[in-house]
């Protein structure tokens, strides 16, 4: 007596179809991946041989980057100034705070941070360093004991007549070959750039604040 042929169950038939479909998808993915890799290699080779031009619209050459050129100029100015003031025991970090105090003595730590554009912990570190060198002293505000005012010592004030001429020499060196009119135009252009950037940053700050309020 021959055995009866077992009819496949419904779930087995469906599973078999799913396996076939999955195998087809996997094969297609593998094939497309190979084709893409081949195409990428061909494009790379063609680009190297100069057959495909790069999209220069997304490039920003260093020679045309205002940001890079200003940063590079600033670093060069700082480097030369550092070499001139270091023999007098002054670092660049101290220099900016001394300049602010030469303009207005007795500023608080927060006011100094705003004038120089540094975070308060950085300002505090510089103040302590200058205090150790005998250039400044801190005096507590009699009305608000939380505030400490930074005052120049006689030694700190005396440095102005020594260091400011050195800073002028740096500026003169940087402006060699430029006429007075050129320098005036340069300063005006830099001022305009700064105003544009501050205005753009202010708008973004307002947008961020509006989003947070929501």
CATH T-level fold name of the domain at 90-174? Arc Repressor Mutant, subunit A
What distance separates the N and C termini? 82 Å
**What is the element string, with H for helices and E for strands?**
HHHEHHEEHHH
In total, the number of strands is 3
Radius of gyration: 34 Å
CATH second-level architecture of the domain at 90-174: Orthogonal Bundle
Total helical segments: 8
Q: Label the structural class.
A: mainly alpha
Shape: extended
How are the strands of the largest sheet arranged?
1-3-2
Helix content: 55-70%
Q: What is the CATH level 1 assignment of the domain at 90-174?
A: Mainly Alpha
Strand share of the residues? 5-15%
Query: Which parts are unreliable, with pLDDT below 50 for 5 consecutive residues or more?
Result: none
Instruction: Describe the largest sheet.
Output: 3 strands, antiparallel
What is the residue-averaged pLDDT?
A: 81
Key attributes of the depicted protein:
3-stranded antiparallel sheet, 6% strand, Arc Repressor Mutant, subunit A, extended, 214 residues, mainly alpha
């Amino acid at each position: 007596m021959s055995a009866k042929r077992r009819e496949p169950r419904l779930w087995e038939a469906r599973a078999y179809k799913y396996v076939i479909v999955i195998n087809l998808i996997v094969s297609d993915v593998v094939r497309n991946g190979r084709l893409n890799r081949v195409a990428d290699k061909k494009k790379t080779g063609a680009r190297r041989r100069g057959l495909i031009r790069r999209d220069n619209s997304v490039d920003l050459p260093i020679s045309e980057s205002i940001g890079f050129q200003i940063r590079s100029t600033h670093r060069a100015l700082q480097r030369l100034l550092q070499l001139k003031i270091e023999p007098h025991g002054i670092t660049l970090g101290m220099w900016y705070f001394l300049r602010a105090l030469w303009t207005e003595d007795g500023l608080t730590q927060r006011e100094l941070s705003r004038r120089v554009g540094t975070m308060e912990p950085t300002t505090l570190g510089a103040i302590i360093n200058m205090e150790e060198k005998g250039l400044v002293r801190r005096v507590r505000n009699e009305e608000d004991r939380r505030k400490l005012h930074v005052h120049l010592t006689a030694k700190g004030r005396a440095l102005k007549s020594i260091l400011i001429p050195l800073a002028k020499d740096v500026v003169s060196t940087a402006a060699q070959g430029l006429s007075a009119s050129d320098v005036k135009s340069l300063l005006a252009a830099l001022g305009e750039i700064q105003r544009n950037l501050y205005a753009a940053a202010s708008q973004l700050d307002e947008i961020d604040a509006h989003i947070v309020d929501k």
